[in-house]
Amino acid sequence: MITMNEPFTTIIWINHNSRKIIETVIKAIEALTKLNFTNYEIIIVENGSTDGSDKIIEEYLKGLDSAIYYAYKARDFRAKYCMLVNTDMIIEPEAIKQAINFLELNKHVGAVQGIILRLTSEYDEIDSAGMMIDEFLNRIKLFRGQEISDVLEKIDKPQYVSFVEGTGPIYRIEAVEKCHQRNDILYIPQAFIWYLEDMYLGLLMWSKGYASVLLPIIFGKHYREYSIKRMKKELLYVQLRNDVAINLLCRNRTYPFRVLRIFLTLLKCMVSGKKDKVRAILSGINLFLKIKSSFGSINLDNAPQIKCTSLISNGFKTCFQLRGKITTP
After folding, report:
1. In the listed set 222, 250, 285, which residue is the last one of a domain according to the structure?
2. Which of 57-61, 220-224, 234-238, 254-258 has the lowest mean pLDDT?
3. Confidence category of residue 2, pLDDT binned at 50, 70, 90
4. Can you give 9-60 as a three-state secondary structure string?
5. 326 domain-assigned
6. How far is CA 222 from CA 56, 95, 168, 242, in A?
7. Is 327 within a domain?
8. pTM of the full structure
9. Which one of 168, 196, 222 terminates a domain?
10. What are the φ and ψ backbone dihedral angles of 15, each rounded to 5 degrees?
11. What are the phi and psi torsion angles at 188 (to 5°)?
């Protein structure tokens, strides 16, 4: 790829209860210091760890002759791009340079991600390669679980996706600011977990004229969900809440069916006494109202979506919790 002047980039690295994989975490930090890219800062966010991993990381950082420790909490507002890196992702040295070069050449692109492999796999299994949605807002995790050698022909060039996934995305800050009409947030603060934050931002970017792109670049390897997989019950609640909110926020021709599904599900849960689900759905409706008030709804006309074969038939199937048949991308 063409090499050009390096625009200043902020990398945000987030830690939460990673002590049991601390060797992987240290390797992830070391990888950030070996990038073939020089014009950047790294902000390390300690997200409320209770297992002592924050202390181990802090001690390790004090021994590094790098910008990491000194950029611990402050984002430099000169930054043109911002990358998020999970605690358990080991990034490739060339990844950021190649991605930034692509962004510099394609001003209409607001977000990119590369191909991320699963760290614990015995072969080169794809962990993340962007996300698509169908018209009913079902999420499709592109190529996840497939061996990269089996799909090389399908991902040998940049391709549009509905949104980039939160493991290692890079965002154009100008696009983020135009979406939110403010310069102090990346994701909406109301819901920083389980697809609502990255899905909302990616789809909002499409509505504002900015594309999301999967690049044919290996970005790194990822452990996948170590910090949250032990929170199964809490995540079920959050997943339902967020699904309700994002379905109410995003408008396309299936919107009436999706709204009807939410209220039929709420009625069914109330009748059957499923209090946790009722609470999650009501919380999702409240979250929708808060986000809409602060940031607005999203028109999905410009976003790439997998089209359904029959709107009416699939609409009624969706209302009764049956996924409709969709065409392939």
Report:
1. 222
2. 57-61
3. very low
4. EEEEEEECCCHHHHHHHHHHHHHHCCCCCCCEEEEEEECCCCCCHHHHHHHH
5. no
6. 20, 14, 9, 24
7. no
8. 0.85
9. 222
10. -110, 140
11. -60, 130
Q: Are residues 145 and 264 in the same domain?
A: no
Task: Say whether both 243 and 211 belong to one domain.
Answer: no
Domain assignment of residue 15, given as a range: 9-222
Q: Is 67 exposed, middle or buried (0-12, 13-18, 19+ CB in 10 A)?
A: middle
Q: Please, which contacts does 139-142 make with residues 24 or more away whose CB atoms are closer than 8 Å?
A: 139/195, 139/199, 140/306, 140/329, 141/165, 142/214
Calculate the average pLDDT of the chain. Answer: 83
Residues 36 and 159 in one domain: yes
User: Has residue 232 got a pLDDT over 60?
Assistant: no
- What pLDDT score was predicted for residue 293? 93
105 and 168 both lie in a single domain: yes
pLDDT in tens, 189-223: 766 566 788 999 999 999 999 999 999 999 999 88
How far, in Å, are 164, 175, 191 from residue 17 at the CA level?
25, 32, 20
131 and 186 share one domain: yes
In a domain, 4, yes or no: no
pLDDT surpasses 60 at 35? yes
Whether residue 227 lies inside any domain: the answer is no
Per-residue pLDDT, 159: 96
